[in-house]
Design a protein that fits this description.
Length: 300
């Protein structure tokens, strides 16, 4: 019996590994030109930013580990230079899952201090009852910052701007002021409900403040790379802000009125935002997220 159990366990683990690999087999990395030397790569996971020039390749986020070779191929088609720097906008696996591969390839990984803390320790997500083990040391950022930092590369200044307790507690914008391009990571889900990771220090007010910071940086001509979704403009960001602030106010009003979470979900609060629920976070989940944050504040 023990031998049978061991065999079943091994087969299950192997099947899970094969499935995890095979689900990326058909993923195509799509390259979108943003400016003459800045590109957005789409695949599976968060949007990747690539800034090329004589000094080397500057990369923003890296999606899942099984996609690393496809991503490298797409970048090689843009530049024959090595990937010099890799910035993580936050710690989640769909944005930093390829760190180990790119770190082994020689890229210097940069992120907020809290990204290093979370990648270097086991993380448990209560919302999805999922535990993420610590990443290997080569996947950890070797350059970290607490607030903001600047790099000078390929003839341009690049600003890394920390936004506090937004999507997580380690979010950073990557701002190219001369090119007028902003990569927002998961502080911006274009035309869809966002995931705010409360267990990782994210908050709804912080998510709103992050959008306010982005709106101060940008103008009508700014090209915005969202964490998820197609290329965006400031008008898209404003629409996103209006949605999130409206949903926050609606749920908060229901909570104050003494409604239960089930009653709030049944109240039709998302009816006029039905098209926003087609992504990772549907109508019920966005209410869950906002309610969980409000409830956590009331219980303090």
């Amino acid at each position: 019996m023990k031998k049978l159990f061991t065999t079943i366990f091994v087969v299950t683990i192997c099947y899970g590994f094969i499935y995890a690999q095979s689900r990326f087999d058909d993923v195509v990395i799509k390259t979108n030109k943003v400016t003459d030397n800045i590109y957005m790569l789409e695949g599976s996971g968060g949007n990747i930013g690539v800034f090329i020039g004589d000094d080397g390749v500057f990369m923003i986020d890296d999606q899942y580990a099984p996609l690393s070779e496809k991503i490298k191929t797409a970048i090689t088609a843009l530049s024959d230079k090595k990937i010099k720097y890799l910035v993580n906008t936050h710690w989640h696996g769909d944005h930093a899952g390829g760190n180990e591969n790119f770190g082994k390839g020689g890229a210097t990984i940069i992120a907020h201090e809290n990204v290093r803390k979370r990648l270097s320790t086991e993380q448990h997500n209560k919302a999805f009852n999922r535990t993420t083990p610590a990443s290997p040391k080569v996947a950890w950022p070797t350059i970290t910052f607490e607030e903001n930092m600047s790099l000078h590369l390929n003839g341009e200044k690049i600003m890394l701007i920390h936004v506090h307790n937004a999507h997580t507690d380690g979010d950073s914008f990557v701002w190219f002021p001369e090119s007028n391009v902003l990569h927002m990571g998961d502080c911006f889900f274009k035309d869809r409900f966002p995931y705010i990771d409360i267990g990782s220090g994210g908050t709804v007010p912080g998510a709103l403040r992050a959008i306010e910071v982005a709106m101060m940086l940008t103008d009508a001509d700014t090209k915005i790379i969202p964490g998820h979704g197609t290329m965006a403009r400031k008008s898209d960001l404003l629409r996103y802000y209006q949605m999130l602030s409206t949903m926050y106010d609606r749920v908060k009003k229901e909570v104050v009125a003494g409604k239960t979470i089930d009653q709030i979900k049944a109240a039709g609060l998302t009816d006029d935002y039905a098209s926003w629920g087609g992504g990772f976070i549907n109508a019920d989940r966005i209410i869950d997220i906002i309610w969980t944050y409000i409830d956590s504040q009331l219980s303090k």
